[in-house]
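Need dTDP-glucose 4,6-dehydratase's 3D structure for a figure. Predict it.
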Amino acid sequence: MIIVTGGAGFIGSNFIHTWLANSDEPVINLDKLTYAGNPENLSIFQSDSRYTLVRGDIGDRQLVGSLLATHQPRAVINFAAESHVDRSIHGPDEFITTNINGTFHLLESTRGFWDTLNQEAKQNFRFLHVSTDEVYGSLNPDDPPFRETNPYEPNSPYAASKAASDHLVRAWHHTYGLPVLTTNCSNNYGPYHFPEKLIPLVILNALAGKALPIYGDGQQVRDWLYVRDHARAIMRVLERGQVGQTYNIGGNQEKTNLSVVQTICAHLDQLRPKPDQSSYRDQITFVQDRPGHDRRYAIDANKIKHELGWEPEETFESGLKQTIQWYLDNPQWVAHVTSGEYRQWVQKQYG
Ligand code: NAD
Ligand code: DAU
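Structure prediction for dTDP-glucose 4,6-dehydratase:
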């Protein structure tokens, strides 16, 4: 039995799909079901005895303590977070509450449970914290990619809150001996990606005939990884990672934002040509830049490759094609997530 937090979100739900495709070990998904949490992402497991959804907050010590005591998991994998940089700029409060205080409470609840275990179970237990490459700050064009030894230089409220959570996880290992693992991953994309993030936003805006907003000059660089490759990496770190270590995870697929958007347009021109034969590229619109926008992220994933034998299976081309096809094939999912709160966010961010 494992407990996953934030499993109704983008990466967590893809992780649960990957887990249950490869294992019969049951999963409990503890999720607060914020705007980003969508039980529909896991609806195929509704009547699967291996899967249980519990609605709750990682900061609720009573709930988490009782879940741990009742189910005696061998691992907790922490995906739960506020994850969108632009939202952290408009309103950082929730980021501090969940990403910092929430992780602190989750660590304390886990430590309380871990202390009750016998020596063998204690040694085998793992707390895996899922984090981001944004903790390392921004790279110049000629800088080498981020390694695990890079100093932390977070620039956005989101990145700072994740950096703080990483430090807490580290301290709970060094001070209390909690068997932790931390992963720092680059930008993910794939199915179930909430359309506030660049790739799903652009796919859906293109199909709706809306503007494709590019912040600033569009020359910012991100290192893209297909989400199911990330899920496999987390499974590998859980099984083989060395306690107390951190592992960078990335796809070695650096792209400028403008080229990502142009590639999406080119695929859509083929898969869903516009009636007037014009290109979706015509919808590209340069808009005001994100404040404090990090220029470049890139991951050196050699440690996880050489020590744990993980490598991505998808290239950006192959992963992006599957992703676009998934959005074309799932209009119902799209219709459900683009109502209500989503519309208010789009209005606030893009006017
Ligand atoms: P997401 O926003 O799609 O999902 C977050 C999930 O956490 C949602 O289901 C939400 O309901 C849940 N949640 C939020 N606050 C909670 C709380 N207090 N208690 C319990 N559940 C709560 O995020 P994501 O993109 O799937 O990211 C998952 C994790 O991976 C995050 O920790 C993020 O920092 C990290 N990460 C994301 C990326 C990326 O490209 N998306 C890359 C690297 C790392
Ligand atoms: O690097 C990992 C991080 O990747 C994760 O930790 C975050 O949770 C995740 O949201 C993501 O952060 P980014 O800020 O890089 O992702 P986003 O999709 O918001 O933006 C990708 C790039 O595209 C970024 O340079 C900003 C730009 N952008 C984004 C949006 C939403 C635009 O140009 N226009 C847009 O409308």
